């Protein structure tokens, strides 16, 4: 795919993992934004440490690039405990999970990324492990099979998911604390950018940070990525100082628009407006029209478009708001909001 799309994708590139690791805050007080989550989490951790027990299991839900993996690492660091990392797709069989659980040391933090993608049998094993610190190992097959209960060391599970809605209720209920990660405010992203610029030795004055922050889709990962592209531009085309003009010229070159919309966002909006007259239209119809998986549209593009007030989700499908027409410089047809599903939504626009 072309540069514009990749540049504002909230998913990491392959060669981005190393640089992300270098930019990751290591402790809770370095973690920027998400004030509520930070405060809640620090209480959970602190009280556990006072009681000298592993804290409750923690679930983190939120879109890609908002800091879930970063927080998981911070939890282990704050507890002073080792961290074991795995992911839902890696746990295909119950045995995969049993092998991990049975070798955890006391108090260890087990991080399961994309926990909603775990296979069913592993999930059921996890219920018991979370609640009773026990697993049942099944030996043999068929009528002769027996299950051997095995105690495991008390541990803390940290689960991360971009799709909390897909987690079965029994699993969700076994987490003592759920951290809902939301998009960041531009001012918070400015802090993220200022910190990253310091670590990368980029000369970034506040107005440059401001320009990048407001185009970063509320997402630290995107902010850090745009910073690197803007740095390249400023070093090659200017003297390295990231002024507002330099940041703006660089981001225009990479087709990140003034509100941070990327190609996919604009494609979704464009189709919704030009092809479906502003909707309502169903998610899968919309996804087919832009040539993407429904999940990509739903997890990657839509939350940001909704948050920007450009589209609304209604029971009858996705609907464009008046701002969406304005954003693409189009005039809504006279009946665009005629059959409006949510008339009040447009009153204020
Ligand atoms: N609160 C924060 N303060 C500073 N930097 C942050 C913060 N949150 C995230 N970052 C930066 O953004 C990058 C992406 O964060 P992270 O990998 O934790 O996201 P994620 O939610 O796990 O994404 P995914 O769903 O794709 O796994 C990190 O490298 C980190 O440098
Ligand atoms: Mg992650």
TrEMBL record:
Positions with a binding annotation for ATP: 23-24, 65, 68-70, 131-133, 174, 184, 221
A Pfam cross-reference name: AAA_lid_4
Segments of this protein annotated with the region Large ATPase domain (RuvB-L): 4-184
GO terms assigned for molecular function: ATP binding; four-way junction DNA binding; four-way junction helicase activity; hydrolase activity
Any single Gene Ontology cellular-component annotation: Holliday junction resolvase complex
Region Small ATPAse domain (RuvB-S), residue ranges: 185-255
Residues annotated for Mg(2+) binding in this entry: 69
Chain positions recorded as DNA binding sites: 313, 318
Cellular localisation: Cytoplasm
SUPFAM superfamilies according to UniProt: P-loop containing nucleoside triphosphate hydrolases, Winged helix' DNA-binding domain
Keyword DNA damage listed: yes
UniProt entry keywords in alphabetical sequence: ATP-binding, Cytoplasm, DNA damage, DNA recombination, DNA repair, DNA-binding, Helicase, Hydrolase, Nucleotide-binding
UniProt-listed GO biological process terms: DNA recombination; DNA repair
Catalytic activity: ATP + H2O = ADP + phosphate + H(+)
Region annotation Head domain (RuvB-H): where it falls in the sequence: 258-349
Keyword DNA repair part of the UniProt annotation: yes
Main subcellular location: cytoplasm
Secretion signal span: none
EC number: 3.6.4.-
Domain AAA+ ATPase: residue ranges: 54-185
Record's function text: The RuvA-RuvB-RuvC complex processes Holliday junction (HJ) DNA during genetic recombination and DNA repair, while the RuvA-RuvB complex plays an important role in the rescue of blocked DNA replication forks via replication fork reversal (RFR). RuvA specifically binds to HJ cruciform DNA, conferring on it an open structure. The RuvB hexamer acts as an ATP-dependent pump, pulling dsDNA into and through the RuvAB complex. RuvB forms 2 homohexamers on either side of HJ DNA bound by 1 or 2 RuvA tetramers; 4 subunits per hexamer contact DNA at a time.
Recorded family membership: Belongs to the RuvB family.
Quaternary context: Homohexamer. Forms an RuvA(8)-RuvB(12)-Holliday junction (HJ) complex. HJ DNA is sandwiched between 2 RuvA tetramers; dsDNA enters through RuvA and exits via RuvB. An RuvB hexamer assembles on each DNA strand where it exits the tetramer. Each RuvB hexamer is contacted by two RuvA subunits (via domain III) on 2 adjacent RuvB subunits; this complex drives branch migration. In the full resolvosome a probable DNA-RuvA(4)-RuvB(12)-RuvC(2) complex forms which resolves the HJ.
Domain notes: Has 3 domains, the large (RuvB-L) and small ATPase (RuvB-S) domains and the C-terminal head (RuvB-H) domain. The head domain binds DNA, while the ATPase domains jointly bind ATP, ADP or are empty depending on the state of the subunit in the translocation cycle. During a single DNA translocation step the structure of each domain remains the same, but their relative positions change.
Name of the protein described by the UniProt record: Holliday junction branch migration complex subunit RuvB
Gene: ruvB
């Amino acid at each position: 795919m072309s540069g514009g799309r990749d540049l504002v994708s909230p998913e990491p590139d392959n060669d981005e993992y190393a640089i992300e690791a270098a930019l990751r805050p290591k402790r809770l007080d370095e973690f920027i934004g998400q004030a509520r989550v930070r405060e809640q989490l620090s209480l959970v951790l602190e009280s556990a440490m006072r009681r000298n027990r592993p804290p409750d299991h923690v679930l983190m839900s939120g879109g890609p690039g908002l800091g879930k993996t970063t927080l998981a690492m911070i939890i282990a660091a704050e507890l002073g405990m080792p961290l074991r990392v795995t992911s839902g797709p890696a746990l295909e069989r119950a045995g995969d999970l049993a092998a991990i659980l049975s070798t955890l040391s006391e108090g260890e933090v087990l991080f399961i990324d994309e926990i909603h993608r775990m296979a069913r049998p592993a999930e059921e094993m996890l219920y018991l492990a979370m609640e009773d610190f026990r697993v049942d190992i099944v030996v043999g097959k068929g009528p002769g099979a027996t299950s051997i209960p095995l105690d495991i060391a008390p541990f803390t599970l940290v689960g991360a998911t971009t799709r909390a809605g897909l987690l079965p209720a029994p699993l969700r209920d076994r987490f003592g604390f759920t951290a809902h990660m939301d998009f960041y405010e531009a001012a918070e992203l400015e802090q993220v950018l200022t910190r990253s610029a310091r670590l990368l030795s980029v000369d970034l004055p506040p107005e440059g940070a401001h320009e990048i922050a407001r185009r970063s889709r509320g997402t630290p990962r995107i902010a850090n990525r745009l910073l690197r592209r803007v740095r390249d531009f400023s070093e090659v085309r200017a003297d390295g100082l990231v002024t507002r003009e330099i940041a703006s010229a660089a981001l225009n070159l990479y087709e990140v628009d003034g509100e941070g919309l990327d190609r996919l966002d604009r494609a979704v909006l464009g189709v919704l407006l030009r092809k479906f007259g502003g909707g309502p239209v169903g998610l899968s119809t919309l996804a087919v029209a832009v040539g993407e998986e429904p999940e990509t549209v739903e997890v990657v593009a839509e939350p940001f478009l909704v948050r920007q007030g450009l589209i609304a989700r209604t029971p009858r499908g996705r609907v464009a708001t008046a701002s969406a027409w304005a954003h693409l410089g189009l005039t809504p047809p006279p009946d665009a909001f005629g059959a409006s599903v949510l008339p009040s939504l447009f009153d204020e626009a």
